[in-house]
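Q: What does the predicted 3D structure of chitin synthase look like?
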Amino acid sequence: MATSSDDDDIAVDESFDEDWDTFITRPADNPHSSKNSYLRIAIVIAKVLSYILFFHAVLGSAIGSKMALIILASNTMHHGNDTAMHDGNTTVRLCTNLTCMNGSALTTTVSPSVNNVLQETTNDAGKAERAKYMLMLMGTILVPEVMTVLRNIVRIMFSKMKGPSWGVLWKVCLIEALSTSGVCLFVLRVLPRSNFIFSLLLMNGVCFVPAILKIHTTIVRKDLKSGRREIMLFLDVMSWLMQTSALCLVPAQPFGYSGPTWEVTLSLFLISFRWWETYSGADIVFPFFFEVPLYKLKVGLSEVRCKTYIYAGIINIVIIALVTFLILASSDDITLNNIFEPVKLEWDEDNYFVQISLLFFVQLVTSSTCFFFSRLSCMTCIHRVGFALPLCLATPATLAMFIIDCQWSNVFRFNSLNIWKCDVNLKQSWREIIIGIALWWLSQLWISSHIWFRSSQRFAQTNKLFVRPMYCGGLVEQCLMLNRKSKDENEARTGSNVTKIVTDVVATPVNSVIYLCATMWHETEEEMVQILKSICRMDLDQASQTGVPDTQRDNYRCETHILFDDAMDLRDDGKLVVNDFVRQLCQLVPTAANAVRDRDDQVTILDPTLTPTPYGGQLVWRMPGGHKMVAHLKDKMRIRHRKRWSQVMYMYHLLGWSLKQQWTSRINAETDPSVKLRLETLYKLRCDNTYILALDGDVDFQPSAVQLLVDLMRRNPQVGAACGRIHPIGSGPLIWYQMFEYAIGHWFQKTAEHVLGCVLCSPGCFSLFRATAIMDDNVMHKYTTKPTEAKHFVQYDQGEDRWLCTLMLQQGWRVEYSAASDAFTYAPEGFKEFFNQRRRWGPSTMANVMDLLLDGRRTAKVNSSISYIYIIYQMAMMISSVLGPATVCMMIAGALTYAFKWDNVTAMAVSIAPPIGFIILCFIVKPDTQINVAAIMSAMYSCVMMAVVVGIAGQITVEGPLSPVALFTFLMCGLFLIAAVIHPQEFWNIACGALYLLCVPSGYLLLIIYSLCNMNIVSWGTREVKKKGGTKKAAGGPQPKTAKERFMQLFKGGEDDDSGYLCGCGNLFK
């Protein structure tokens, strides 16, 4: 080992590498975290199947939505069950569905009086049906608007959102009103009067305004080369001219449109305003100082979109209802009274009203499905196959299906359903089809061409993917394509030089910097190997970035810092030397580095460089992949030990000095304002993209798990911390208990907190923290507070990770959870170690939650992710935790009543007697004795829980499967089973639920009593190692010999190393 100083305060008297030994020992991979070959093959197959599924789901649902809408619209003008048509004085043609349009009908001869009555009755029935079809068409437009309003209302209930200014509100509402009026006019007036060819092709002519804005964006862009700019501008202008032809509608009549031309022109023009925000890359400035501030409106709307679209959605709903009312009121055929007339609702093959009504639900389901899978495709970065390609093929595919069914009616059997009849002469329509495809469809593809090249972050939020939060019911395909955010939306800004400088810096890609910070103390060899292998995997992954562009993967630079508590031993000669745990770490680094490599890719790890430091010492390794690993050896005589102070140490070193102080001094030394502004922006970007990965000394993880946490950070800049799914590993019954406990905790509690508000605790064993959040006011500085009161010892030192998250939440940051980011850590296998661990966790959890609840009003104001409803939810969870012991006692009393036929008073007295006795015992005996008694009582309670299970089963048998007890039992079991099914890799954790059920009294009664009665103990409680030379008790005097003396010793004050704070009256209040 190389030494950079001759200082003799730290000595290492042996070598850690034997050059003559060419053989190695490869530690076995963790079977829980390593992926076998079958799992890798399954993942590849799942990816291929997902491509196929997404493509067909989006294409099929888009086709279904368009076909259902067109068929439904055609029936509003021509359909009626058994509609009678008068033909002469005595002949009546009875038309079934649309058969009269093709000349086929049933002809019968009746008297004139019967003919008149029959004609009047059947026409009224047909009008009533067509009026309800009109309401269904209105529903296709109305349902997405209602869903938008409800979605935003739910969001503001669980998050704090800004409200819009009057200037933004009235402008957005005006644009929304115009576009919604155009959609209503198009769906309710144009589509019913068009044949299917004209309807399909005309849906592609709604890009008039986007085409103009795209031309303007191309003109003002500064990053385009001269040749490329002219080509793009030419294509933009040609696309605008093609879209203008749809408004002019020169070939209107040959296409089969029977209504007035102005309806088509007005509806298409108004609809095109719907996507102004997607293509407004800069404000439009005209001569004579006339300006259209679209981009300013876009920026202002982005911050208040949620509440703005509540108001706009309500206005849209009113407009849809009003336009429908006006159309019905002005119709000569259908009146408002026809809406309330009854229709036949029984299902039979002759009742076509029910069959066509199903199209309404088909249209709603297929539209929602198309939007869902399109959004999911963009979130998972398969947008080319799962989003762009199927949507571009939707129009020709739908047209082909209609044409095929017209030509060969037995292929899709639309005609056989009697809900649609082909009324187009295909031999005379090829010219119109070619013109419509060439003009409108191709121009729409060019205008929306950004959907092919727009790359997004993995699992990006919907507002990062789409401009509007929901689809448009009448134009699903066009809405998704034109609503997709453009890649160039931030590249064409205008304004001052300050804005341009900031924009240029923001547009520059910034790679992430990840500091892997692990805290170690007394880890075993197996535990050390586990985390060292994880670090070496990160080193390999970082090395694999060489030559890979940023567009293909998210590159990062990582660095490891290991904080070793109590790393020094004092020799007899008075010199400090590293202890056995540090020596063990140095020996295991080469072993772990080669364990993650192939046999043909073994490497030699150089000895670390040892440097004495004011806090102890420092070991530095240079890993083969360029990774730097530093072990900080802390001497507890020079610096505070324990985990929180180790975290303070590396946060201040990496963020306070290496990041903040270095950048601040550089910025302050700069005199040029533009350069200074650029440096300040770069500093903010560097802070936002610098992360600390907090680790325990025994955690096992993959680089992909870290990348998933980084994805959460990148998708939302307000996320200050992110945690993954923690899996306990080990062996024994307690591990089985914790496997089920961790599973349901992550399946239900973490997920509920993530959805309803944000996660309250990001565990310190595997969590990613954003540098900006840690360096924020009232976070890092307050985290260094020394405990001076009793509650400080519980809140600050017993649950440091939860307290850090509480500080972030109170400062306005969000904490999120990723179920796909797996990490494995060793859990306590012994009863004593388990109880001591939970003795720290329980009170600290309650202390931090109470701190958050007492400060709930202020936190809800500053944190947009925490609402008053979420505060009430956490209050209910706190109350349920407090009532947990009483609930267990009542459950046991009920079991005793059923099993032994005792009365309620006796059963309740017997159920509460053991807990009361255990409480008294906890005040007068030592902690070790308390744990031993708790272990014995846990075994006894397990037998009682068996009686509880038998009692519940007997009660269900007596009262039946529909009794409250049976329904509650089935519901709980069903919830656990469903959660296990949707987590297939963790499915067998549910088998440990039987053991968990037997240990409910131990975990929710005895453990809580033990934790509350021993809050004065502030030692860690796990990985305790006896010091050399024996304990203080052995050197303090004679030990008790007789049984009586040993018994009386339980009630006397004793001394334990680092056992906590004692205060009077022997051990009574210990």
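A (community wiki): The structure tokens above were generated from the sequence. The longest strand covers residues 814-826. Residues 167 and 1013 are 60 Å apart (CA to CA).
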